[in-house]
Amino acid sequence: MSTTSTLTLPRIGVLAVQGDVREHLAALTALGAEAVTVRRPDEVEQVDGLVIPGGESTVMDKLVRAFDLREPLVRRIAEGLPVYGSCAGMIMLADRIADGRPDQQTLGGLDITVRRNAFGRQVDSFEQDLDYAWSDPAVSGTTGPTGRTGPVHAVFIRAPWVEQAGPAVQVLARVGEGPAAGKIVAVRQGNLMATSFHPEVGADRRIHAEFVSIVREHRLQQSGARQSPEREDTA
Ligand code: GLN
């Protein structure tokens, strides 16, 4: 359970065992979060949300286990911790992998099957503008214009795609054109969000803003839940 109050900035960790950590820290800081690296088990307990960056999921999996991070991460995800996974981070959040290493484990949480390196060798990396299902500000409780409209310029680097998604999974974006047209590349399920692409590489902060909103809402709910037993006592 996080120890921060709702009056302070949301503290959002970036899993920092491997991958592109710095860019995520910068994006989160720019959005008014307190962004911190997470490398040790006790640091997992101290965040209101977590980003799992792009990198190499097989290496990340090994290091997460070697640093005793697996148990606290799996537990906090099960408790409802908001987590955003980008690329290798999406693989880490998937319940099932296709084309994983035989011994590769994920943290899980998202009822999806991801296919690693799905776009194939010839199109290792590519960029495309995608339609994105931005959260409705009225639903998310955000007041005023969020600026979260219009397509996303998505950068894919040896990216996975979502091969199969369970009924509770909301599809946020699909590849629009080319041989992979229609493939799912952004999803949300409860407090878990994942993209096959890398929003941290450009100046567009909207995807991170979506995640910071999820973290803020979750914190509000948590503080409400903490207060309600006292209210019952005094009633
Ligand atoms: N192909 C990598 C993996 O399997 C992911 C690539 C990335 O995160 N840019 O983990």
Task: Indicate the topology.
Blueprint: E1 11-15, H1 21-30, E2 34-38, H2 41-45, E3 49-52, H3 57-66, H4 70-79, E4 83-86, H5 88-93, E5 94-98, E6 110-115, E7 125-130, H6 137-140, E8 152-157, E9 161-165, E10 170-174, E11 184-189, E12 192-195, H7 206-234
Parallel strand pairs: 1-2, 1-3, 3-4, 4-12, 5-6
Antiparallel strand pairs: 6-9, 7-8, 10-11, 11-12
The structure holds glutamine.
Protein name: Pyridoxal 5'-phosphate synthase subunit PdxT
Pathway: Cofactor biosynthesis; pyridoxal 5'-phosphate biosynthesis
InterPro entries: Class_I_gatase-like (IPR029062), PdxT/SNO (IPR002161), PdxT/SNO_CS (IPR021196)
Précis, in short:
The chain is an alpha/beta fold and 235 residues long. Helix content is 31%, strand content 26%.
Description:
- There is one protein chain.
- With 235 residues, the protein is of the alpha/beta class.
- It has a single domain (11-119, 155-227), classed as Class I glutamine amidotransferase (GATase) domain (Rossmann fold, 3-Layer(aba) Sandwich).
- The protein is 31% helix and 26% strand.
- The chain contains seven helices and twelve strands.
- Strands 2-1-3-4-12-11-10 form a seven-stranded mixed sheet. It has a three-stranded mixed sheet with strand order 5-6-9.
- Strand 1, helix 1 (21-30) and strand 2 form a beta-alpha-beta unit.
- The longest helix has 29 residues, at 206-234.
- Glutamine is lined by residues 54-57, 87-88, 91, 116-117, 157-158.
